[in-house]
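anyone seen this seq b4? input:
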Amino acid sequence: QGCFAEVVGGEAAETIFDELFTSRNPEKVLDGFAWTEGPAFIHEPENDESSRLIFTDTIEDRIYEYTPIEKELQLYMEGGGGCPDMERVWRAEPGANGIAMKRTSTVPTVIFCQHGARQISMLDLATRQIRPLASRFNGTRFNSPNDLVLDEDEKFVYFTDPIYGLLEKARFYDGAYVDLKSELGFSGLFRARVTDGDAHVELLDQSLKRPNGIAFTPDFSALVVSECCQGEEIPGCVQGDARWHVYRKDASGNFVTRSKTIDIDDVGPGLGCADGMKFHPSGWLIASCPQGICIIDIDKGTLQSRI
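predicted toks r here
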């Protein structure tokens, strides 16, 4: 069944959309999943035809592999979220979440978030071997790492740690009850040295209500983190809020200074939230938001177009 992308924002918004996309006709590639997350394209050096899409289903606790050229879907792994068996009876989202390819590895390798195990881990795609990288901050367990990104040199992995992996099947909504399950007592933005794991985890920001998506600008000069507001009980973070935080480097070259927060009020209420995102090489931020996909100018802090 055909569909057409409605671009909101007038002629200027349509111009930006047409510069970024080759068509206004979205194609549904796959369906039949419970809760898809973490899409990441895996490219092997000197073999473009090997490119494939890895993504997760956090509710069903499965990782899938899709090859666009052959249009073939395969179940890559069951139980990739690392959830303990005794917790499966109540955990609503026990599976894996965000995925980032390690570009400098000699073999296809990703670093990914495990809701069930409440940690970030390294996964060898050839052997399917999982090696935990970080599961605690100052000895206390993370909530449920959600999304992550590697820095330019791949020495550090930056990741968000909200409470969504602690949601209950019987109370599958974002409410104050789930914050009480946090051992940390907050949702945070962290970074960890890729080789050292727990021994080198740093807290960058603990003031965010529901940190979620994370991305570097194409030149790695700024780090952007979204807040995914879905409920009605969290002050300052309710359904329909669309918010992105921009972090710039300090004098030491660390992303610890929040330079601005982009609040977009005219997105309007509706299903969805500010979640996953990706920068276009031209610098536009293409981000999920309530009621669609938002195209944002992070320098101006403005919504340029919405699909």
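The first helix runs from residue 10 to 20. The chain has a mean pLDDT of 90. kinda curious what u guys think
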